[in-house]
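4.2 Preliminary Data

To establish feasibility before requesting continued support, the project team ran the inverse folding procedure on a target of 340 residues. The structure was first converted into the token representation described in Section 3, and no sequence information of any kind was made available to the design step. The complete token record follows.
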């Protein structure tokens, strides 16, 4: 099922299918409100770890840029001198629990592609891959060399208490069609944004009807092309006028493909599902053409024993006002008495 296509399609058949899914969406939203209420009324307690916890998450599925923003936040905290432990669910990996010390590599088939991206970008941090965030937090408590836990994609994981909940939104379409799963992309009703500490809007647009929370703009921009093994680099200007096969298995392939078009390339797309595990058939197709892929896909493609003629589009994520973001984060973290 092409869920993003169904959610956005104006075709009559898709509109009827979305309408048929609305009762399920209403039940899903009701279930979330009951789940939140269970904690709000005190029937369930949130586990508190004696270390500040900064969570970067979202309220919609796939493609908003949560992991790149997590990386940017982690780099900012490290530049401020804090020792960071990263918490990641390891979606797509086979490990139930993995503790990856600083400097140690991680395999995508074990910990998932997003965890590998976090590992490579924040190589000085301790990475813990575990869907059970409370178990992760109890593991961190055994170590004395942690100043802050940085949680990737954990906004919906309520059992663990947080110092900050940072929610990432796509500035162009922050709520998709406005419906909860399965008739739309929302993991929870957009009214739940009220429990966030701050909003991080990707792009230069500021969506309407946002709650009155601290709001920071995030800029994602292409940086360079790099060979799959990382040994060669190309200027982005070389894409102008070129025919390119855009290969991706991500939540928002349209944004990736549009970036290539904006760089002047003539794009043909080859899309797979989010977190796709590439097969021999896929590789045969890639071996016969010059292709460009994403950094997320590259962590899986480069681990395969096949030589591919494929380039990786590297991007950078920066805050429009980094000083304001840093002041916001450090003020909240320094309010915790146990921070050195």
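Position-by-position output of the design step:
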């Amino acid at each position: 099922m092409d869920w993003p296509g169904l959610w956005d399609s104006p075709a009559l058949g898709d509109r009827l299918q979305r309408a048929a899914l609305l009762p399920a969406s209403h039940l899903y939203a009701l279930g979330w409100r009951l789940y939140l209420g269970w904690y709000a009324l005190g029937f369930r307690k949130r586990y508190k770890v004696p270390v500040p916890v900064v969570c970067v998450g979202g309220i919609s599925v796939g493609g908003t840029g949560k992991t790149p923003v997590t990386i940017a936040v982690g780099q900012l905290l490290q530049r401020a001198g804090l020792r960071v432990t990263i918490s990641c669910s390891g979606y797509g990996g086979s490990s139930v629990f993995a503790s990856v010390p600083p400097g140690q590599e991680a395999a995508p088939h074990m910990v998932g592609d997003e965890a590998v991206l976090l590992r490579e970008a924040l190589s000085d941090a301790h990475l813990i891959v575990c869907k059970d965030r409370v178990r992760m937090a109890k593991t961190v408590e055994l170590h004395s060399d942690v100043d802050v836990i940085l949680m990737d994609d954990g906004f919906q994981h309520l059992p663990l208490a947080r110092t900050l909940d940072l929610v990432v939104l796509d500035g162009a379409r922050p709520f998709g069609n406005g419906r909860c799963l399965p008739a739309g992309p929302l993991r929870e009703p957009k009214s739940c944004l009220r429990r966030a500490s701050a909003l991080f809007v990707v792009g230069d647009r500021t969506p309407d009807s946002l709650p009155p929370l601290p709001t920071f703009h995030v800029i994602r921009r292409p940086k360079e092309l790099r060979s799959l093994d990382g040994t060669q680099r190309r200027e982005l200007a070389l894409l102008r006028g070129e025919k390119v096969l855009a290969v991706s298995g991500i939540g928002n392939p349209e944004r990736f493909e549009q970036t290539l078009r904006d760089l002047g390339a003539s794009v043909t797309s080859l899309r797979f599902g989010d977190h796709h595990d590439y097969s021999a058939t896929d590789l045969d197709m890639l071996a016969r053409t010059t292709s460009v892929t994403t950094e997320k896909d590259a962590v899986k493609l480069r681990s395969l024993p096949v030589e591919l003629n494929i380039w990786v589009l590297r991007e950078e994520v920066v805050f429009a006002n980094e000083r304001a973001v840093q002041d916001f984060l450090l003020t909240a973290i320094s309010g915790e008495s146990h921070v050195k």
